[in-house]
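Lab manual, section 2.4: Encoding a predicted structure.

Procedure: take the sequence of the chain (489 residues), apply the prediction step described in section 2.3, and record the output as structure tokens. A sample record is shown.
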Amino acid sequence: MRNLIWPTIVASLATTGTSASQIPLTEEPLRSSSDPSVRTLAHASHPNHSLTIKPHHAISSTDNSDNSNPSLADICPGATSGYTGYLNSGSKHFYFAYFESRARPKHDPLVLWLNGGPGCSSMSGLLMELGPCTVNESGDSARENPNSWINAASVFFLDQPIGVGFSYSSNTSDVHGGTFAASEDIYAFMRLWYQAFPESKSLPFSIAGESYGGHYIPVFASHIKAMNSISLPEDQIPLESVLIGNGIFSDVKQASSYYDIPCTNVTGIGPLLDDGVCEKMAAALPRCELLMEACHAYPDPLICGASSDFCSEELEMPYVRSGRNYYDVSTPCDGYLCYPIMIAITNFLRTDAVRTAFGVDEKAPKFVECSDKVGREFQKVNDFLIDTRSYVADLLHSGVRVMIYVGTYDWICNFVGNERVFGSLEWKGLPDFRYQQENNKQTWSGGLWWESGPLRYARVNGAGHMVPWDKPVEALKMFTAWLEKKDLE
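Recorded output:
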């Protein structure tokens, strides 16, 4: 989910000459825990990082006749065994929660899930979309999610960068750094995980996410591929695929779709704005695109500020002022981030018993769903200007499978913009991909899909920005088919 409606439009590879397999994993003194089950693991190949992990089990405290300290299974019905913990990098601590597959945890794929923003917590993915449980609207309890993605895979939910969710820094002067800086932390996290749990190396690994994940995931995956290319086989991360839902990849390519969604009937429920408003938006499109291109060519604050101000006022604010949900054009915007459940999740995660069950560090701040501060920090380093199309193309050329799925009722990162991105992606499979899109769309229970080689594209009819929330059955079906390398039906 994008927290900022239109942020200002304004990598080096760490190498080591020593094989990680030759360096033993060591345990460090615990940072601040008296719990004997908590371990902090370090590895000489990543001297600036360590991994603190605490196991949790699919057994409720009532089964153990101990109600004084609710277990994660009590707090989150449907939770499987797994770990919670932190990736530590100096004063920075990145929170994660990991759940084993409900099916075959020793054989099913491993998936890292990232929410977007930038600045939004992956705990919303866990507790609203695809985790083992869903928070009730009262905010005081949760219920089992029968369509969780852990039905088909073991899944990490990671809060990043620092300042997001339960991730924090003990040094207030730490900067967030942007997408490229975060890629090294993601790489270190997976390296430390595989050293702690080498049996995981035999499982296919995918990175999945939504929204600003269209920035994060192509860059993170490309960094992993680059590091794999200079690592011994036994030290490589077995990256097999990426999945990106309703992503933002290219602001220039996707901007014009802010007209199409509310001003045409492309969604099947439009147009949503008056003719006069839409005529003014259409007239503003060429100038907006010209200003955005100028910002990319000359990323000066004055140029980019003018671009942002004009495009926001002329293309975004007409829809925002309509009162409709930014993430689902079929509904009104109701409450924080347009969904009442967002406040419920916040209240739930601010409860002491819930924080304890999820293994949250006592030093972590009160939970906030989306951090405006992180969004502003990303603006300062022009992170929003990154066009990730070339990173996606490089992944496809390197053999990494890519699935793009898009709910057709989203406005903020909509299917029209996504199809313009992938209909113009510069990779060797583009001619066939466009042929499939124009002449050979396939139907499935959720909508339409087509693919060429390693690239699959799926529309999910009637879903908004958060596809697993709006269409949980279809989302799980789509996810499972992708992991099993099967057609959508």
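Check your result against the sample. Residues 275-297 form the longest helix (23 residues).
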